[in-house]
Amino acid sequence: MSWQQRITQALDERRQSATYRQRQVNRGGNGRQIQLGGEHYLNFSSNDYLGLSQDAQVIAAWQQGARQYGVGSGGSGHVTGFCTAHQALEQQLAEWLGYPRALLFISGYAANQALLAALMQAGDRILADRLSHASLLEAASQSPAPLRRFRHNHPQSLANLLAKPCAEQRLAVTEGVFSMDGDRAPLAALHSLTRAAGAWLMVNGG
Hints:
Elements: H1 3-16, E1 33-36, E2 39-42, H2 56-69, H3 84-97, H4 108-119, E3 125-129, H5 134-142, E4 147-150, H6 155-162, E5 170-175, H7 187-196, E6 200-204
Helix pairs in contact: 4-5, 6-7
């Protein structure tokens, strides 16, 4: 089978199973309302949960920032892309959260990938809720530490995994709010279990 035949077959299979996706042109931005095909709809599919993309103060701040810093980073934060605005935001976040320092990433996806890569080593173990975000599960699968998954929002399932011997460190991973279903993790119970076992608990902001 040639490459083109393989691609054509895959597309035909998706069309037949009603899983072939096509993009739609959104003419009104990606706020609380969207405009598709001349009609306006309430938008429940955006990551802009608070509608900040259309907030007048946020837009004015972006415009001011573009005038002062330009519209591109010019490089990574380790080269020339770390500016006074980033530094000030990290300081304000650290003070607000009550920590000595904070670190900005370009996205939550990048933060999850980097954190697991930095923390985990061979001999460690990652214990993740089955419905953890794809960025966490992908990073865990690429880590030298083996991944074990516990039942969704089920502290006893995590407890069973924590009871198994591990040569080095254990990191339990879950979400604050699970983005696909909107339910919340029982963080108090998970924290109690991991602390008693000498493990760490990582919570993705969701």
